[in-house]
Backbone:
């Protein structure tokens, strides 16, 4: 997993699938309440490093991941199915 300091430097052709990460499901909200937001987002980062190591986090503040780029649709869909979010295609 890469962290993009400047998202304009990321080649959209290599990472055409973007997920806008939203914690919307009741299960994920409950998990965040139990472990805290900082640990929740660290778990998401760990998932990305293990399952999708070639993904790219576009924006991240001190705690939250906002958007993640993926090279394949299947990886992006897998992320959405586990963590929730909105999948878009940029190319």
Residues:
């Amino acid at each position: 997993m890469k962290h993009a300091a400047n998202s304009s430097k990321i080649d959209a052709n290599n990472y055409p699938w973007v997920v806008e990460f939203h914690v919307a499901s009741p299960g994920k909200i409950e998990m965040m309440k139990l472990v805290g937001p900082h640990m929740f987002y660290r778990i998401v980062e760990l998932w990305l490093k293990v399952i999708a190591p070639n993904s790219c986090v576009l924006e991240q503040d001190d705690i939250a991941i906002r958007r993640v780029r993926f090279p394949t649709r299947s990886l992006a869909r897998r992320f959405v199915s586990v963590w929730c979010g909105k999948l878009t295609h940029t190319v």
